[in-house]
Fold this sequence. Notes:
alpha/beta; 6 strands; 35% helix; globular
Amino acid sequence: xxxxxxxxxxxxxxxxxxxxxxxxxxxxxxxxxxxxxxxxxxxxxxxxxxxxxxxxxxxxxxxxxxxxxxxxxxxxxxxxxxxxxxxxxxxxxxxxxxxxxxxxxxxxxxxxxxxxxxxxxxxxxxxxxxxxxxxxxxxxxxxxxxxxxxxxxxxxxxxxxxxxxxxxxxxxxxxxxxxxxxxxxxxxxxxxxxxxxxxxxxxxxxxxx
Length: 209
């Protein structure tokens, strides 16, 4: 816990971005009957019945100090999908930086070995040269600022019925572009001293670097 809190309160350095990473499953829901459009004095009306069209996984990256975020939509959220997400982070989102500090939950898929299994050791080592994993402690996922951003995404974008992956991806892209255009940041105020006062113990957390 303390290691992550210290990381959060370090000065912003664009040469070494701090990115919070999290994932969320969302349902695809199609309309059974066409909703009635808005009219003068009447809101849009929607039938309670809907059709389930499966689920999709959302991988979210957010750089809270820069006000930058990106979302990947995948069908699953296993080791291979995590490995692909990390390569996307290194090669597409931050291709020009040497090291990225990544805050993430301590799940069995969030490992160096997932990269090795997916890409082989040579490529896994190349990616890990640019990645520094900082894991939240057990039952401490609330420390991951990506959870805050996922909550905003859910309220602003995922609260309505989205029938297919194409529609879901387009709606998320529009949300992402709007948030990035305003450089919406997350301001974290909980400190190491606060943690010691509240929990009365020291938890250094685990870091891969």
